[in-house]
Amino acid sequence: MRSGSPGNSVVVLLSGGLDSTTLLSIFKTRGYTIFPISFEYGQTHSRELKSVEDLCSYYGLKGKRVKVEIPESTSSLTGNAEIMARSLEEVGSGIPNTFVPSRNAIFLALAASYAFSIGADRIAIGVNSVDYSGYPDCRPEFISRMEETVNLALGKHNAIRIEAPLQYLSKGEIISVGKTNNAPYELTWSCYRGDQVSCGKCDSCLLRLRGFMDAGLQDPLEYREFPDFYLEWIKRG
After folding, report:
1. Which helix (H) or strand (E) holds 162?
2. Domain of 191?
3. Does 87 fall in a domain?
4. How many CB atoms within 10 Å of residue 186?
5. Which residues contact 90 (CB under 8 A, 6 or more apart)?
6. pLDDT digits over 61-114, tens only?
7. Is 4 part of a structural domain of the chain?
C-alpha cells in the first residue's frame, strides 16, 4: 500500500539513541510525514527498543519494527564477546569490537524496500563521521554509494534519497540541534551494555556524555558511574 506523499514523507531509521532521536526531531520540525523503522537483530542492548516505543508514543507515530537475523559475528553487540573498554581519547581510533559487519547496509536496504512500498521518496539515517566509534558504515562515501545501490535495485525512475543531516556535526552540535527542537533526550538510550542503567564506560556512553558537556547541558539519564572528565566538568559548575 503506497501511503506516503512524495516530497513530504520520510522513513527514519530510529534506534532509540541520541542521534536518531535528533534526526526524528529535525524532520518533525520540518513538517514531514514520518515513518519510523527500527530493527531487532539480537543486540545485547535491546533496551533501546523500549526507547523506540517511548519516542513513537511521544511523537504520536506508528513505528515499524523489523526482526533481522544477522549471521554470527565477532561483534560484542550480537555475541558473547566482552565490550571493548577504551578511553575517550581512543574512541574513533580504529574499528571497535562493537562493530556489526554490514549492519547499516542491511538496515538501509530494508528501509528502502519499506519506503518504496509506502511511497516515501527519502530515508533518513543518523550516522555521523565526526564524533563516532570508528564504524566504516558511518562514512559519507558509504552513504553515497548505498544510495546509488538501492536506486539501482529499485529502478532509477523510483529514486530514493538517503539523507544524513548529522554527518558532519560534532556530538555537542547534534545535542544542541535536538534541544532547539525539544527532542526528549530523557526517553533515549545509548549504552551498549544490556542493563537498565547506563554504564558510563562504553564508547557510546563516553561520546554521549562528552556531547552533553560540549553542549553545556547535563545528561538527563541515570548512570552507574560517570567518567572523570564529566565529573570534573560538573564540579566546575
Report:
1. strand 161-163
2. 9-236
3. yes
4. 11
5. none
6. 999 999 887 776 666 666 655 665 655 555 555 666 667 778 899 999 999 999
7. no
16-33 pLDDT, tens digit each: 999 999 999 999 999 999
- The CATH number of whichever domain residue 48 belongs to comes to 3.40.50.620
Q: Which amino acid is at 44?
A: T
Say how many C-beta atoms besides its own lie within 10 A of residue 28's C-beta.
Answer: 17
What is the rounded (10 degree) CA torsion for 169, 172, 177, 180?
-170
Count structural domains, the chain. 1
Q: CA-CA distance, 76 to 88, in Å (whole number)?
A: 19
Question: Helices 171-180 & 203-214, crossing angle to 10 degrees?
Answer: 60
Q: How far is CA 101 from the centre of its chain?
A: 16
- pLDDT at position 150 is 95
pLDDT 10s digits, 31-70: 999 999 999 887 877 889 999 999 999 999 999 999 887 7
Considering the domain boundaries, does residue 124 fall inside one? yes
* Degrees, nearest 5: CA angle 35-38-39: 150
* Residue found under cell 534519497: 161
- How far apart are the C-alpha atoms of 180 and 32, rounded to whole Å? 17
Residue with cell 547499516: 104
Which one is predicted more confidently, 181 or 131? 181
How far apart are the C-alpha atoms of 203 and 39, rounded to whole Å? 21
In a domain, 1, yes or no: no
Please check the confidence at residue 186 and state whether its pLDDT lies above 60.
yes
